[in-house]
C-alpha cells in the first residue's frame, strides 16, 4: 500500500511524505528510484529516457531512503525534498517515483521439480511541481455509446481536449436520461483522472455500470461532467450534453 498515490508540490512547498506499507504476510524489500514517463492519449504511460523529458523533476528531488526492508504490517515514511533552481521555465515538471519489490531469495534451491511462480510487483506514482502555471482548460469534444458483440450498450467513448501548461485532475462522470423530463442517472465513472501537458486530446472508454438502462432506448441524452479533485476541488473543468438519436 502506498499513500498518497500522487504528489503535487506548490510554489511554497519544499517537502512531502509518502507512506509505504507492507500489507503482505512476509518480509518485503523495496527499491525506490525515479523514472521518466510520457502519458498516452488512450491512457497509460510509455517509459522514456531522461533526456526525452525536458520537464523532468527527478533532478530537483532528493529522496530518503532509497531501499527499505519491511516486516509484515510494517510501514516506512519516504521523504521527498524539492530543490528549485533559479530561472526555471514556466510549466509543469513531472517525474514518477518507482517502487519495486525485490525477490526474497527464498526460492533459490527449492527441492522438487515443481514450478513456483514468484510475482515481483512494482508501482509508480507521479510527482509534480508547477512553476507559474495557468488553470488547464478542458472541453468535451465527443461522447458516444458503443455496442458490444453481445448486442448490449456497455461502453461510453469520450474524447476530451486540453489546453494550457498544466495537467488536470479529477473525476469524470457520464449520466443518461431518456428525455428532458426524466432525472439524470449516472451510468459510468472514472476517478482520479489526469490529462497531462503532453496530451492535448485524450480518448477513454468507460464501462457502463447499468447497461440495462440503455437496453431498450430509442433516444435520449448523455451528459459528461469532468469535476476537479485534490488541488482542483470545487473546480469544474467541463460539462456537455449530447443528444442521442434513435438512429445511433
From TrEMBL:
Pfam families: PapD_N. GO terms for cellular component: outer membrane-bounded periplasmic space. InterPro entries: Ig-like_fold (IPR013783), PapD-like_sf (IPR008962), Pili_assmbl_chaperone_N (IPR016147). It comes from the Bacteria. Residues 2-130 form the Pili assembly chaperone N-terminal domain. GO terms for biological process: cell wall organization. This is Pili assembly chaperone N-terminal domain-containing protein. It comes from Pseudoalteromonas rubra. The lineage of its organism: Bacteria, Pseudomonadati, Pseudomonadota, Gammaproteobacteria, Alteromonadales.
Amino acid at each position: 500500500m502506498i499513500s498518497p498515490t500522487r504528489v503535487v508540490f506548490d510554489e511554497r512547498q519544499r517537502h512531502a511524505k509518502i507512506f509505504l506499507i507492507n500489507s503482505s504476510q512476509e518480509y518485503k524489500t523495496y527499491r525506490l528510484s525515479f523514472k521518466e514517463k510520457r502519458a498516452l492519449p488512450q491512457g497509460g504511460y510509455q517509459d522514456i529516457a531522461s533526456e526525452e523529458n525536458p520537464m523532468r523533476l527527478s533532478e530537483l528531488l532528493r529522496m530518503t531512503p532509497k531501499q527499505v526492508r519491511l516486516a509484515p504490517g510494517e510501514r516506512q515514511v519516504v521523504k521527498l525534498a524539492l530543490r528549485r533552481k533559479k530561472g526555471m521555465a514556466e510549466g509543469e515538471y513531472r517525474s514518477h517515483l518507482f517502487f519495486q519489490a525485490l525477490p526474497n531469495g527464498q526460492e533459490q534451491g527449492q527441492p522438487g521439480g515443481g514450478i513456483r511462480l514468484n510475482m515481483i510487483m512494482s508501482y509508480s506514482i507521479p510527482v509534480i511541481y508547477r512553476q507559474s502555471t495557468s488553470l488547464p482548460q478542458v472541453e468535451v469534444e465527443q461522447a458516444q455509446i458503443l455496442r458490444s458483440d453481445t448486442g448490449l450498450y456497455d461502453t461510453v467513448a469520450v474524447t476530451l481536449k486540453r489546453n494550457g501548461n498544466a495537467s488536470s485532475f479529477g473525476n469524470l462522470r457520464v449520466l443518461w436520461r431518456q428525455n428532458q423530463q426524466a432525472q439524470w442517472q449516472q451510468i459510468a465513472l472514472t476517478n482520479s483522472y489526469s490529462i497531462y501537458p503532453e496530451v492535448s486530446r485524450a480518448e477513454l472508454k468507460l464501462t457502463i455500470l447499468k447497461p440495462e438502462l440503455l437496453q431498450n432506448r430509442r433516444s435520449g441524452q448523455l451528459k459528461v461532467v469532468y469535476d476537479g479533485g485534490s488541488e482542483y476541488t470545487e473546480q469544474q473543468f467541463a460539462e456537455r450534453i449530447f443528444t442521442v438519436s434513435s438512429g445511433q
